[in-house]
Amino acid sequence: MGAKRRKETGTVRRPGLFRRLLRRLVLLGVFLVLASVVQVLALRFIDPPFSAFMLARQLEAASAGQWGGAVDYQWRDARQISPYLLVAVIASEDQRFAEHRGFDLDAIRKAAERNASGGKLRGASTISQQTAKNLFLWSGRSWVRKGLEAWYTLLVETLWPKQRILEVYVNIAEFGDGVYGAQAAAHRYFGEDAASLTPAEAARLAAVLPSPRRYSVANPGPYVQRRTGQIQRQMRQIGGTGYLERL
User: Fold this and answer.
1) Residue 121 has pLDDT above 50, yes or no
2) What 3-state class would DSSP assign to 146?
3) Over 90: is that where the pLDDT of 117 sits?
4) Mean pLDDT throughout 223-230?
């Protein structure tokens, strides 16, 4: 009788398979959350040596048998980058950058209405979202990727000041096939340092950001030329380099 009771008691107290699995999943989730927080917090102070997109570009080149030179990337601090480029990317990509907390809800609503009405498909990603995606994730349209992008965007906006978000963005944005960041782009296309970029040059770089492998800075077609002029006007409309004082 006593042995049977001990056996029954042990059976009751022993965690079930489902409970053990659930506990491990919770612990894994907690670990991943903490790891992502540490990752983002560290990169507030450490300049990233590469981004996820750069790694993907390097792997893409390696799979094609190209083992070197696929990525041109040279970090520059914000004070070493022309303020015109900082303003140009804001004017082009995210004019409410100083106001929103990572997501421009008004732009998202307008993009959804435009897409639902059958107009040209349009996104509403902010600079914060693009920084999170380019630095930590991969390209694609899956719900998993979008969910991770939202999470990393929240972390970036919470743990970094706006100035740091913009600094990282202009350093990891792709301005041409394998050309990443302001310094590499300024040197490649204009033969100068990023600090020397003029308003027109900065606007032309920003003009190719929607699709840097489709549009060319070196040989701008009608779209890039037209877009460059529009961005220069938008730079003036948002207050020029004075906009940066709002960050």
Assistant:
1) no
2) helix
3) no
4) 97
d(CA 175, CA 202): 11
Structural Rg of the chain based on CA atoms = 23
* DSSP calls for 81-105: S-HHHHHHHHHHH-TTTTTSSS--H
Higher pLDDT, 163 or 112: 163
The neighbour count for residue 199, using CB atoms within 10 Å, is 20
- Element (H or E) spanning 162, and its range? helix 162-172
- Res. 233: pLDDT tops 70: yes
Please check whether residue 225 is in contact with residue 197, taking contact to mean a CB–CB distance below 8 angstroms. Answer: no
| β-strand partners of 176 | 179
pTM > 0.85: yes or no: yes
Side chain identity at residue 70, one-letter code? A
**Domain edges within the chain:** 1-46, 49-62+70-246
Level-2 CATH architecture, domain 49-62+70-246 = Orthogonal Bundle (1.10)
The set of residues, in sequence order, having a beta carbon less than 8 Å from that of 210 and lying 6+ positions away, is none
Dihedral sign for Cα atoms in the order 85, 91, 96, 100: negative
Q: What does DSSP assign to residue 213?
A: T
Q: At 123, is the pLDDT very low, low, confident or very high (cuts 50, 70, 90)? A: low
In Å, how far from its chain's centre is CA 173?
8
Q: Provide the 3-class DSSP secondary structure of residue 179.
A: strand
For residue 91, how many other CB atoms are within 10 A of its CB? 25
